[in-house]
TrEMBL record:
Residues 1-90 form the FAD-binding FR-type domain. It comes from the Bacteria. Gene3D superfamilies: Nucleotide-binding domain of ferredoxin-NADP reductase (FNR) module, Translation factors. This is NAD(P)H-flavin reductase. InterPro entries: Cbr1-like_FAD-bd_dom, FAD-bd_FR_type, Flavoprot_Pyr_Nucl_cyt_Rdtase, FNR_nucleotide-bd, MRET, OxRdtase_FAD/NAD-bd, Riboflavin_synthase-like_b-brl. It comes from Zhongshania antarctica. One of its GO terms (molecular function) is oxidoreductase activity. Its cofactor is [2Fe-2S] cluster.
Length: 231
């Protein structure tokens, strides 16, 4: 999908049941690489899914992520844990503010898909999706997001924000840190859903509260990749 994020699909022997926003631990069946956790990048179906997908970012030192996206490992066997996590849609009667960083877009997509699929009342609320990436080449899944937007009954606003785009480029959109675009209009009375690197999550929580969002209405899933873990 981008130079460092791939969509990895896993075909299961039996159906798995989960809530959109949850994650599983994935481990290679034939190596000693430690298992890593990844969020589902799709909603579930009433009968469960037998083909599941994840957004995986390759990082320096990320043994599991780099193994998963290596073309040489296509059709290799992996083991998945049961679904875990409590990152799921809450209040159906409030506007929604989603902030995603990098591969943290995966559970956000699953949440939106599930709401549309289930014809949830929350689809009648305005939704803002802020996506933080470094440059234009890091923007992905845009067509699918736009398609979801056409199915959302109320206003659906998708805003990519580039933090490291060359000044002289042809980009006419938003620049800087994605958290700089959290404002009172999108925060006051809304429910927040955050997924991405811990520094982004922490900064977003502060900005949301500064703009009137209650702390107990902010839900998040922090992604910590191997590049941030010292041996």
């Amino acid at each position: 999908m981008t130079h460092d994020i791939s969509k990895v699909s896993v075909s299961l022997e039996s159906h798995i049941h989960y809530r959109a926003g949850q994650y599983v631990s994935i481990q290679s069946s034939d190596t000693d690489i430690p298992a890593r956790c990844y969020s589902f990048a799709q909603s579930n179906t009433p009968g469960g899914n037998q083909l599941v997908s994840f957004f995986v970012r390759g990082v320096t030192g990320g043994r599991m992520s780099n193994w998963l996206i290596d073309p040489l490992n296509v059709n290799s066997k992996v083991t998945l844990s049961a679904a875990n996590g409590d990152f799921y849609l809450r209040d159906q009667s409030a506007p929604v503010l989603c902030v995603a960083g990098g591969s943290g877009l995966a559970p956000i997509i699953a949440l939106i898909e599930e709401a549309i699929q289930n014809n949830s009342a929350i689809v009648d609320q305005p939704l803002t999706l802020l996506m933080g990436v470094r440059s234009q080449r890091d923007i992905y899944y845009q067509d699918q997001i736009n398609s979801l937007g056409t199915q959302w009954r109320n206003e659906f606003r998708f805003t990519p924000v580039l933090s490291d785009e060359p000044v002289a480029s042809n980009w006419l959109g938003h620049r800087g840190f994605v958290t700089n675009y959290i404002d009172q209009k999108t925060s006051l009375g809304a429910t927040g859903y955050l997924c991405g690197p811990p520094p982004m999550i922490d900064a977003a929580m502060i900005k949301m509260q500064e703009n009137g969002m209650d702390l107990n209405r902010i839900f998040f899933d922090k992604f910590l990749d191997q590049s941030g873990i010292k041996p």
